[in-house]
Every structure is written in C-alpha cells, then in structure tokens.
Amino acid sequence: MATQREVKTRIASFRNIQKITRAMEAVSAARLRRAEQRIAALRPYADAIRRMTRQAAIDAGAEVSRLPLLAMHESEQRVGVMLVTADRGLAGAFNSQIIRAGLRLGAELEAEGRTPVWYASGRRGVSSLTFRGKTLAGAYTGFTDRPSYADARRIAGELMAAYVDGELDRVELIYNGYVSPLTQRVTREVLLPLASATILGEDDTEAPAREGPRALVEYEPDAEELLRVLVPDYVETSLHRALLESTASEHGARMTAMRSASENAGELIEDLALEMNRARQAEITQEIMEVVAGAGSLV
Q1: 3-state secondary structure at position 118
Q2: How far is CA 210 from the centre of its chain?
Q3: Per DSSP, which regions of 46-114 are E strands?
Q4: Phi, psi of 158 (to 5 degrees)
Q5: Under a CB-based contact definition with an 8 Å cutoff, are residues 57 and 199 in contact?
Q6: Residue 228 is part of a domain; what is its CATH number?
Q7: Helix %, strand %, coil % of the chain (to 5)
Q8: Using N-to-C axis directions, what is the helix angle for 94-111 and 123-131, rounded to 10°?
Q9: Which end of the chain is flanked by fewer CB atoms within 10 Å, N or C?
Q10: CA 80 to CA 166: how far, in whole Å?
Q11: Which residue range(s) make up the domain with 233?
Q12: Are 246 and 144 in contact (CB under 8 A)?
C-alpha cells in the first residue's frame, strides 16, 4: 500500500490537472459561443448566394457548360480530397474521425482505379497524412481557431485553379459539421465540379418554391457573365462555412472532452482520498500495536 506522502502527491497532481482541464473547458465554451455567432452571421449570405447562383445557372441553360467550374471533366481520374482538421488536439475523436473518413475515401478511390490527391487544413491532419506517407498537394495551418474569409479564399483559389488546369477532376471536402456542443457529424461534400454539388441539384428546402409561380429575373450583364463572378464566390463561401463549422465543432468537442476529463479527475481524487484514509488508519493501527507491545514487554 502506498504511503500517505505518496498519495498526497498524486492527489495534488490530479488537482492541478483538474484546474487545467476546467480552464480549458471555460476557454472552449467562450470560443464556441463566438464560433456559433459567426456561423449564424454567415448563413443568410451563404443561402442567398446559393439561391442566386442556382437560379442564374438554370437561366443560363446550355451556356453553363462553357464555364470551367461548372463543366464536368470527361473522366474523374484525379480526385482531390480536402480534410478539414484542427491545429490542436485534446478534443476527443474530433480529428481522428476526419482522418479515418479521409483514408477510407482514399482507399475507395484507389480500389476504383482513381488517384486521390491529398489536401489538408490543420496541423493534425497534415501531420497524420504525412506520417502515413501521403504526399500533400496543399497544407494549410495556423488559422483553425479562427478561420477568416481570406483563408477560405486562398484555399479555394488553389483548388479552383487545379480543377480548371485539369490537375483535378473532382474535389471532395470532409469536415465536422456542427450540430451541437455534444454532437459533431462527419460531413462529406462534393465541392467541384459545381454541377455535382448541391448548388444545381434537387433539395427539399427549395421544393415548395418550385411548386408556385416564380418571378421573372432579368440579368444585366447576362446570366453567363454573372455566373463567372458568382461561382467563385460560392466556392469560397462554401469552404468558409465548412471551416467555421469545423471550428465550432472543435471547440464543442474540446469543451466536452475537458469536462469529461475534469469529472474523471474528480473521481480519481475521491478514490485517492479513500486510499489515503486507509493508509492513515493502517499507520495509526500499527503505532497502537507497537505501543501495546512495548507496554507488554515492561510488565
């Protein structure tokens, strides 16, 4: 059995850990509220640009195929896989589940005879893919705590350039979609070509709008010229939304993980306190026995 001094040292260590985990939980909770506010502020713009781009693409008709970002390549041999992770850990399965989903997608593509081209944001994703021997075509770090639109524009610009130049035939995005502080859903989306993305597809949210009369829209300049501006903005906004949702998911996962760690530390402290009391009682009993034995030897 450990001595009182040893148990006291372990209790002090767990109490220090508990202080750290509680502080990290409070910091993550504050950052989560800010991330939720940024997502709420972005949604109206993202929804509006999606509706505008979709409507312009429908009205442009056959002219859509002349836009490189809307045109599908004849074959999808090289598929870009963009993983959105975090720069830091201590967030439960937040990073590992994205990495596992990305590796599964890569294995599926290779089984189909296609070549995955790896991109990753966040040090965890970059280091994990590099450790597994994957060559990264793009690595983006240092901003996952608070991603800006400029970060999304830089990443989207490289992905769009690779698609237009024929280096990529499709781009898939894997990130943690934010549901609640306790729930993060691994989300897989096709970012490019937009003809395969949700922008031009059927969705339930717009079904009621198609049943009724639709307003006549006149474009100045024409729909094709408007799409040349809207489509890159849509890609950048979609990527920015994914980065923001990943950030909110990261803070929610870390807050939950740190709360669980604090509770576990508290349980360990209680167990060690009982162990220390047993050690104290054993020492007292031993001292009493020694006193009684010494008194008996004097009689």
Answers
A1: strand
A2: 34
A3: 78-84
A4: -70, -40
A5: yes
A6: 3.40.1380.10
A7: 65, 15, 25
A8: 50
A9: C
A10: 11
A11: 27-201+216-255
A12: yes
Q: Residue 77: what residue type?
A: Q
Q: Give 67-81 pLDDT, tens digit per residue.
A: 777 778 888 899 999
User: CB under 8 Å to 4, separation ≥6 — which residues?
Assistant: 276, 279, 280, 283
Place of tokens 């429908």: 58
pLDDT at 194 over 90: no
Adjacency order of strands within the sheet including 136-140: 136-140, 115-121, 78-84, 170-180, 183-192
Number of domains in the chain: 1
Residue 138 belongs to some domain of the structure: yes
pLDDT tens digits, 248-279? 999 999 998 999 888 888 888 888 888 777 77
Q: Phi, psi at residue 115, to the nearest 5°?
A: -110, 115
For residue 293, tell me if it sits in a domain: no
**CA distances (Å), 38 to each of 49, 146, 180, in order?**
17, 10, 15
Give me the pLDDT at residue 267, please: 86
Identify whether 266 is part of a domain. Answer: no
Within a domain: 264: no
User: Token pair of 27, please?
Assistant: 């910091």
- DSSP letter, residue 201: S
Query: CB–CB of 2/279 below 8 Å?
Result: yes
In the predicted structure, residue 224 carries a pLDDT above the cut 80: no
Residue 221 near residue 63, CB atoms below 8 Å: no
The bridge status of strand 78-84 relative to strand 170-180 is parallel
> How many Cα neighbours within 13 Å face the side chain of 249?
25
